[in-house]
Amino acid sequence: MADLNKIERTPQGSLDPALLTLCLSIEAKRARTVIDHILEHGIITNEELSDLYGYDHPPRAIRDVRENGIPLITHNVTSPKTGRRMGAYTFDDVSKIKRGRIGGRKAFSKKFKQELIVMYGAKEAFTGENLDERYLQIDHRVPYEVIGDDNSTKLDPKDFMLLDASSNRAKSWSCESCNNLTTKHDPQICRRCFWASPEDYDHIAEAQSRRAEIVWTGEETQDFDQLKAEAQALSIEVPALIKKKLRE
User: Fold this and answer.
1) pLDDT above 90 covers what percent of the chain?
2) 7-35 burial by CB neighbour count: b if 16+ within 10 A, else e?
3) Which residues make up the CATH 1.10.10 domain(s) of the chain?
4) What is the pLDDT of residue 177?
5) Per CATH, is 4-101 categorized as 1.10.10?
6) The whole model's pTM is what?
7) When comparing pLDDT for 98 and 100, which is higher?
8) How does strand 160-163 pair with strand 72-78?
9) 107, pLDDT greater than 80
10) Alpha carbon distance 214, 228 (integer Å)
11) What is the residue-wise DSSP string for 225-246?
């Protein structure tokens, strides 16, 4: 655990001109907030992102910066306010600039979304549930921070998936704590992960895990209610009850 007061700051005056130029070119609001704070103070913490700027999920703001190609160092520190562990961030060396990510995510056209729907159907990738198209969001199978976008080539639908907002958030939360996203940046590791390939995977965020998404709809909700009542009687959760029944 690093000492927050001993971390080397990286304010504007300490930056290589190429890195500073890139920092000043970013226009996205959330990334701009993080960048401006570090340029002024040399460091920013998750606590500051939450308390000063009202971000409920500070790591998402940090990802916005990295997705624009700007390298950041993550420091694990103890909050002087709460005593809890938190992240603190400074700029990394100019050599770590992610060239393929400069400019941030590419906007997806309605035509491209239709290509995905033709390929996969209007289905949520993790649950297989049919949804109205407006509830489906396009997401990179391999996180953008790992693989970026190649602006010189046509997007391949096989590199993307359709998720609802809940699944997109769940994937984001898991990926943000994965060592491959924060350190190794190996696309092949991502491609074998549930979050990229729920159809065929061998790990979840590098942990030996398996996952099944089940949605009960219509009259099936009665089956879920029955399972829930049975689980409550045993003081366990529904997933634990399902596992118990499979072992019997």
Assistant:
1) 71
2) beebeeeebeeebbebbeebebebbbbbb
3) 4-101
4) 84
5) yes
6) 0.64
7) 98
8) unpaired
9) no
10) 14
11) HHHHHHHHHTTS-HHHHHHHHH
